[in-house]
UniProtKB/TrEMBL annotation:
<dbReference type="GO" id="GO:0046872">
    <property type="term" value="F:metal ion binding"/>
</dbReference>
<feature type="binding site">
    <location>
        <position position="501"/>
    </location>
    <ligand>
        <name>ATP</name>
    </ligand>
</feature>
<dbReference type="Pfam" id="PF13193">
    <property type="entry name" value="AMP-binding_C"/>
</dbReference>
<keyword id="KW-0479">Metal-binding</keyword>
<feature type="binding site">
    <location>
        <position position="543"/>
    </location>
    <ligand>
        <name>Mg(2+)</name>
    </ligand>
</feature>
<dbReference type="GO" id="GO:0005829">
    <property type="term" value="C:cytosol"/>
</dbReference>
<feature type="binding site">
    <location>
        <position position="527"/>
    </location>
    <ligand>
        <name>ATP</name>
    </ligand>
</feature>
<comment type="similarity">
    <text>Belongs to the ATP-dependent AMP-binding enzyme family.</text>
</comment>
<dbReference type="InterPro" id="IPR045851">
    <property type="entry name" value="AMP-bd_C_sf"/>
</dbReference>
<dbReference type="InterPro" id="IPR011904">
    <property type="entry name" value="Ac_CoA_lig"/>
</dbReference>
<feature type="domain" description="AMP-dependent synthetase/ligase">
    <location>
        <begin position="84"/>
        <end position="470"/>
    </location>
</feature>
<dbReference type="GO" id="GO:0005524">
    <property type="term" value="F:ATP binding"/>
</dbReference>
<keyword id="KW-0547">Nucleotide-binding</keyword>
<keyword id="KW-0436">Ligase</keyword>
<dbReference type="GO" id="GO:0019427">
    <property type="term" value="P:acetyl-CoA biosynthetic process from acetate"/>
</dbReference>
<comment type="function">
    <text>Catalyzes the conversion of acetate into acetyl-CoA (AcCoA), an essential intermediate at the junction of anabolic and catabolic pathways. AcsA undergoes a two-step reaction. In the first half reaction, AcsA combines acetate with ATP to form acetyl-adenylate (AcAMP) intermediate. In the second half reaction, it can then transfer the acetyl group from AcAMP to the sulfhydryl group of CoA, forming the product AcCoA.</text>
</comment>
<feature type="binding site">
    <location>
        <position position="585"/>
    </location>
    <ligand>
        <name>CoA</name>
    </ligand>
</feature>
Length: 649
């Protein structure tokens, strides 16, 4: 890994004026970890405070006394930082460029217009009785009204919970129930790749389940005009409510540690957990990382392809860019529609200077060859970014050579829903790049590598990636289950935040993320717990037991491989296989659909009944050598059986 190719900071890049330099990085990084209070006291002032903080950091990672507080006596408002503070100088600047699913639909919305709509919608929410601290569920497509809804929540101090539009009614209901939300904001239908997504119908179905029964108000944006069912006592058209409202609203003063949003994400066990972020630390961290990592300049047009339903869509589609007064592009569609050249064409059409996307998208576009991408000029691009999963050097090189025309540095940014913002990343202008490495920590971030016994490894090392001290954007709790927060992140190794990822560190101190070390899958950059897919499979009448593992997949990075033991008397068939895939799609959503199902008469278990996933992962990956010690299995013959099944399938 130390022999990897190195890309130095291109001279033309630094010449154009960057906020980063190698010397500055070393100096500021050293200062930030030696005296985090001083560093973050200064950095904390990049956002506007209604009441300035006097305390910076109060943190203990000790499981018996866990607490994480940043800027705790300060008051501020996220929406005011994203909108009001720009009105004087940037009122007529474009805040959001919206590019529709269809290439002939786009809109420009200025900071002033967005501010007016957010104020109106804040007034709508207040009129509907939404109180400070109350949870509002947002289940929307990639349209500007999603941004309006999120910002309006932060404006009145309501806590938003955005649920990705690809999740099923059951998944939506589970999330509504967990945070006891009585208000849902949605659209009639979404539109992706020319196909409609029945969002309102999904909300109706979610409300019919016990989990969704508490919903009293549904606000619906008309996107496609498709027909929807209507319950006049509960459903309201967004446009009707907005028409009567004032475009003025005084943003609520929020305490720095007041909850800002909840975002559900998969863990290695149990139901998805509600990751809770708070106001001050999150906003400071999103604002600081966005400015420095994307090396932001006033005239940038920045495009992050993530959906608002994921954390990237929170921190780096919406809050980071708008807080910095940057023009952010929101894309409703998909890279292959109407053809595989779409990404480049959108770059040209809107003169995008920074493109931030996921390795799975890069690999999918790369597979089509260079031609579709070369139909565009892409001369406006200055910087590229990657996020969501390890990027293989081959995809990195292609992204650099073809999309960026050898000209644009790539920031490979490592972080998690839990971290709120990017923790390990190059800084353009400062960091020499190695394809496949997320490189070095951001200011104030202290990564470390531990072996499985918790021993700290120095120098060149490989093991568990942990973070030794807090940063302002860190999650504060699992909503409604603080014990789960402590158990998940602070018990495996004492005194540090456990990421769940493995990593190597090379002789230059560069980090190479090797992927999850727990039972969390990363499918096309989407996080999925094996336990969730297993429980969906087992909820089908034909299934007695199942074990789900990840396996290498050319485009998705990881695919979902399911071993299924059928109920006695049920015969395996192709129809049943299809039915099970459809069942999981219905239960969780299309992103959870297994890529392969193998019939398993038995599963490899220890004598105490624990499934040995290590063996199942190897078989799924077609690695039959080195299965390790199978002598502790209750019935070693099941392994041969599964290997034969894999070879046959
Ligand atoms: C997991 C977090 C971060 C926002 C999107 C995903 C993996 C993320 C990288 C990267 C290698 C990465 C990790 C992490 N991951 N970025 N640049 N290189 N791996 O957020 O759904 O919370 O998933 O994604 O495994 O733990 P998430």
């Amino acid at each position: 890994m130390s022999e990897a190719k190195i890309y130095d900071v291109p001279a033309h890049y630094s010449a154009a004026g960057t906020r980063n330099s190698p010397e500055d990085y070393e100096r500021r990084y050293a200062q930030s970890v030696q005296d985090p209070d001083a560093f973050w006291a200064e950095e904390g002032r990049i956002v506007d405070w209604i009441k300035p903080f006097t305390k910076v950091k109060d943190v203990s990672f000790n499981a018996d006394d866990l607490h994480i507080r940043w800027f705790e006596d300060g008051q501020l408002n996220v929406s005011a930082n994203c909108l009001d503070r720009h009105l004087a100088e940037r009122g007529d600047k474009t805040a959001i460029i919206w590019e529709g699913d269809s290439p002939d639909q786009s809109r420009h919305i200025t900071f002033r217009e967005l501010h007016a709509d957010v104020c109106r919608f804040a007034n709508v929410l207040l009129r509907k009785g939404v109180k400070k601290g109350e949870r509002v569920t947002i289940y929307m497509p990639m349209i500007p009204e999603a941004a309006v809804a999120m910002l309006a929540c932060t404006r009145i101090g309501a806590v938003h919970s955005v649920v990705f539009g690809g999740f099923s009614p059951d998944s939506l209901a589970g999330r509504i129930e967990d945070c006891e939300s009585t208000v849902v904001i949605t659209a009639d239908e979404g539109l992706r790749g020319g196909k409609s997504v029945p969002l309102k119908a999904n909300v109706d179905n979610a409300i019919r389940t016990p989990g969704g029964a508490g919903v009293k108000t549904v606000i619906v944006v008309r996107r496609t005009g498709g027909s929807v069912n209507w319950d006049g006592s509960r459903d309201h058209w967004y446009h009707d409510l907005m028409a009567g409202e004032s475009a003025e609203h005084q943003a609520e003063a929020m305490n720095a540690e007041d909850p800002l949003f909840i975002l559900y994400t998969s863990g290695s066990t149990g139901k998805p957990k509600g990751v809770l972020h708070t106001t001050g630390g999150y906003l400071v961290y999103a604002t600081s990382t966005f400015a420095n990592i994307f090396d932001i300049r006033e005239d940038d047009v920045y495009w992050c392809t993530a959906d608002v339903g994921w954390v990237t869509g929170h921190s780096y589609l919406l809050y980071g860019p708008l807080s910095n007064g940057t023009t952010t592009l929101m894309f409703e569609g998909v890279p292959q529609y109407p053809d595989w050249g779409r990404i480049g064409k959108v770059v040209d059409k809107h003169q995008v200077s920074i493109l931030y996307t996921a390795p799975t998208a890069i690999r999918a576009i790369m597979r089509e060859g260079d031609a579709p991408t070369l139909e565009s000029k892409r001369t406006s691009l200055r910087l590229l970014g990657s996020v969501g999963e390890p990027i293989n050097p081959e995809a990195w090189e292609w992204y650099h050579r073809v999309v960026g025309d050898h000209r644009c540095p790539i920031v490979d940014t490592w972080w998690q829903t839990e971290t709120g913002g990017i923790l390990i990343t190059p800084l353009p202008g400062a960091t020499a790049l190695k394809p496949g490495s997320a490189t070095r920590p951001y200011f104030g971030v202290r990564p470390a590598i531990l072996d499985n016994d918790g021993t700290l490894l120095e120098g060149v090392a490989e093991g568990n990636l942990v973070i030794s001290d807090s940063w302002p954007g860190q999650m504060r709790t699992v909503y409604g289950d603080h014990q789960r927060f402590i158990d998940t992140y602070f018990k495996t190794f004492a005194g540090v935040y456990t990421t769940g990822d493995g990593a190597k560190r090379d002789a230059d101190g560069y980090y190479w993320i090797t992927g999850r070390v727990d039972d969390v899958l990363n499918v096309s950059g989407h996080r999925m717990g094996t336990a969730e897919v297993e429980s969906a499979l087992v909820s089908h009448d034909a299934v007695a037991e199942s074990a789900v593992v990840g396996f290498p997949h050319d485009i998705k990075g990881q695919g979902i491989y399911a071993y299924v033991t059928l109920q006695a008397g049920v015969e395996p068939s192709d129809e049943l296989r299809k039915a099970l895939v459809a069942h999981v799609r219905r239960e969780i959503g299309p992103i959870a659909a297994p890529d392969a199902i193998q019939w398993a008469p038995g599963l490899p278990k220890t004598r105490s009944g624990k499934i040995m996933r290590r063996i199942l992962r190897k078989i799924a990956a077609y690695e039959f050598d080195g299965l390790g010690d199978t002598s502790t299995l209750a019935d070693p013959s099941v392994v041969d059986n599964l290997i034969n099944g894999r070879k046959a399938g």
